[in-house]
Amino acid sequence: MRKKILTTAIVMTLSLMSIVMVGAMTLWYASKGRRGVYVYVEAQFNGSVKTSTTQYGLKKNKYVKKVTISLKEGHYEMKKRTTKSNKLISIEKINNPFQISAAKWNWDYK
After folding, report:
1. Cα gap 23→107, rounded to integer Å
2. Residue 20's pLDDT band (boundaries 50, 70, 90)?
3. Containing H/E element for 25?
4. If you ran DSSP here, which 8-state letter would residue 59 be given?
5. 54 in the Ramachandran plot: left (φ > 0), alpha (ψ -120 to 50) or beta?
6. What are the Cα distances from residue 15, in Å, to 10, 18, 51?
7. Which of 31, 72, 106, 110 is the most exposed, fewest CB within 10 Å of its CB?
8. Cα atoms in the Cβ-side hemisphere of radius 13 Å centred on 38
9. Predicted model pTM
């Protein structure tokens, strides 16, 4: 009986820790690169929390108002997306190996 209670407590503690860690990692996020034959760019933010880092090109101690992501290939701008909400936005396309792809994000502050 004690072993079962201890095991349950350990599992619950580890589950709670993973939830807290995942929540902390998604306050501000941006990434670009390749996934197989695709190139991508994605970003997300939490506008109700002041930035505490300069990671992803953020300015410290600011509230993010919106993020804009764009994906270009060659001289043609493929796509641009903007969000003012806390949702993850992304753009993905099949990479043309004969063109140079570039992905970027820009943060706007309150």
Report:
1. 20
2. very low
3. helix 2-25
4. P
5. alpha
6. 9, 5, 26
7. 110
8. 9
9. 0.72
Question: Which residue is it, tokens 């970027």?
Answer: 104
Give the Å distances, CA to CA, from 3 to 10, 12, 79, 88. Answer: 11, 14, 56, 41
What's the length of the chain?
A: 110
Three-state secondary structure call for residue 27:
coil
User: Positive or negative CA dihedral for 30, 62, 72, 93?
Assistant: positive
What are the structure tokens assigned to 9, written together? 């407590």
Per-residue pLDDT of 45-91, as tens digits, reads 999 999 999 999 999 999 999 999 999 988 776 789 999 998 999 99
